[in-house]
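Write out this protein's structure.
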Amino acid sequence: MDVRVQAEAFDPGRELSGFAQGRSDLGAVVSFTGVVRDDAGTLDRMEIEHYPGMTEKAIGKIVDEAIARWTLADCLVIHRHGPLRPGEQIMMVATASAHRVAAFEAAEFLMDYLKSRAPFWKQEFIKDGSSGWVDAKVDDEDALKRWSD
């Protein structure tokens, strides 16, 4: 298991290439890379804040849950903080399992958690000089509900 919260950019290809390398017991590796999106073409940047230590602990706890729930062989979560421009990678999740369904479901579970519950605060800065905090979206909350027992 590897959980990283960092300001620095990462190379998804390099990360995936090294993830679970040399393992012959795996039947599936699933990855997802999230990118800062600018739907309206007006976003200058997004700034992500977090509390060091607390954030990694919270993500680590949910990763432990995913590993136990889907019997994952390995898991990687990278999430960036600080100022991010449209088109930059914001996060990456990779899961490895003996079976593809487990790897896919665990990756979706982790992505839903990161989007809705991980302790990050996001503020958008618009090209016209305005700014605002990003509120939780109903769709994201609904996606997370499907994982409740």
